[in-house]
Amino acid sequence: MWRAGLLCRCPACGKGPLFTGFLTVAPRCRACGEDLAACEQGDGPAVFVILILGFIITGAALVVEVMFSPPYWLHVAIWPPLILGGALAMLRPFKGVLVATHFRHRRGHVER
Ligand SMILES: [Zn+2]
After folding, report:
1. Contact of 92 with 19, CB cutoff 8 Å
2. C-alpha 63: how far from its chain's center?
3. Distance 4 CA to ligand 1 centre (A)
4. Residues of the chain predicted below pLDDT 70
5. DSSP secondary-structure letter at 22?
6. What was the pLDDT predicted at 78?
7. Taking a C-beta distance cutoff of 8 angstroms, is the pair 50, 57 a contact?
8. Residue 83: its pLDDT value, please?
């Protein structure tokens, strides 16, 4: 489940791609035909990414400020690219894991 989610693969077979776009969940798996539309998580993964990345970046910015007291322009140069890059890097795997978790624990699911 975690592996398929982190690799953005179908949670049923682990082979077919989970997404058709950057964050659009495929309606059906191209490899096994599993219905994936019911596992769509919407903006749920973004909440986790915001909270986790916000905690990390805020903590890092505070540590850098306390230890080095750099000029503010350096903060502006460092943190926004890290926030943007981190969010883009984390969104797909987080959504993949949430879709896989939903798939595994959905009502009526029988483990094969
Ligand atoms: Zn599949």
Report:
1. yes
2. 26
3. 10
4. 108-112
5. S
6. 96
7. no
8. 96
Q: Determine the distance separating the centroid of ligand 1 and the alpha carbon of 58, expressed in angstroms.
A: 38
CA within 13 Å, CB half, 34: 23
Sole residue written with tokens 């400020």: 65
**Alpha carbons 43 and 52: distance in angstroms, whole number:** 15
pLDDT the model gives residue 108? 64
For 23, which DSSP code?
Answer: S
Give me Rg for the CA atoms of the chain.
Answer: 18
Give the model's pLDDT for residue 111: 60
Q: What angle do CA 28, 19, 96 make, to 5 degrees?
A: 105
- How many other CB atoms sit within 10 Å of the CB of residue 105? 9
The pLDDT assigned to 112 comes to 57
Are the C-beta atoms of residues 53 and 90 closer than 8 Å to each other? Answer: yes
Within its chain, how far is the Cα of 1 from the centroid? 14
**Torsions phi, psi for 28 (to 5 deg):** -140, 150
Q: Report the separation in Å between the CA atom of 87 and the middle of ligand 1, taken as the mean of its atom positions.
A: 26
